[in-house]
Amino acid sequence: MKFNSKLDRLGTETAFAVSAQARAWAEKGHKIYPFHLGDINLPTPENIREATYRFMNQNKNGYCPSEGIPELREALAHDVGSKRGVEYAMENVVIQPGGKPTIWKFFAVVMNEGDEVLYPNPGYPIYESQIKYQGGIPVPYSYDETDSGFAIDIEKLRASITEKTTMLVYNNYQNPICAASSQEEVEALAELALEHDLWVLSDDAYYEIRYTDEPPRSIVNISGMQERTLILYTFSKKFAMTGWRVGASIGPAEVIKQIARFNINDESCTNHFIQHALAETVEGDQSGAKALLSELQTRRDVMVEGLNAINGIHVPKPESTFYLFPNVTKVMAKKEFTDLDEFRIAALESTGVSFCARHHFGTPLEHETEHYIRLAYSGITQNDIREGLGKLKSWLEG
Ligand SMILES: Cc1ncc(COP(=O)(O)O)c(C=O)c1O
Predict the structure, then answer these.
(1) Is 205 close to ligand 1, i.e. is its CB under 6 Å away?
(2) What atom of ligand 1 comes closest to residue 242's alpha carbon?
(3) For the chain, which ranges sit under pLDDT 50?
(4) Does the reported pTM lie above 0.90?
């Protein structure tokens, strides 16, 4: 019996494998400090839960339009457009079961075999997986570490563009490295996209997980970009709804029409009663989302303080996401580790502190000499952050 040979090209999200290792270690009776998975250990806001029960009880239990219910598409068009300084209509929105499906569906609509796709590496691992699986050629771009965070190496990115380049994947408010673009960086990327006629996937999963009053930056708001950009939108992070599976693809109406064909072929429609609840709450009472953000911000501060208390580690305070991406090159050398994964497992087994590492976010690039880990603070309490980072400090400095 044969399997499809394309499966060899399909990657995975190895953060889930790290979770399994942490679980196995916990089952042996050890306390785990779960910094590995970008999941949220806080409840979905009450108004969303209440509205969901209500619509479930109103028998919104049948199929609904594959594109999503008009009320939610309209509400999102308004909300997402106004938060980015552009206008969208219902025709620009197609509801998805989560943020992730937008990635493969957009590639399936605009990418041809042999097309070169620029994507962030380190970055969300599903980009690389789906580019390869669907026959594209992944062309990674990377970030330079600066005193205040990370910045895209625009010149290197420009140099990697060829006649075959057709797409740019851009994740502002970035997972795993929590980079937030300056306005100059967004403009430089837009200029490249316009000059080389590229489609852009703007992964906005963390667009609303920001801890600053500075207005957010979006590539769609630059002249000429709305027509070539598809936004990956998700409710997962903003409303602590990772397991509910609701999101949307938002962009040019012609692209949306094609993506909707995949909805019909794939899931038929996204959960019906949840869509009604979200249509009501997307621009309604936001106090639940605000409380969530405030808790995440406090955790971020505790994290930054705890990590910077460790000799050999320095992290700036990121303005967005719920990750930190410390450089651990010095502390690894001190503990005489040369292999990042061995270091990660030793940390787990010595302290219970579980985290992901650079290689879980795309294939490491040849020139890399520094080692990084990713710590998420969305699924761990403030007390456990303090306790876990304290144990990590003792182990690293011991
Ligand atoms: C950058 C990025 N994009 C997309 C997603 C997928 O989001 P969802 O869980 O809504 O599918 C994630 C989830 O962690 C993410 O970090």
Answers:
(1) yes
(2) 9
(3) none
(4) yes
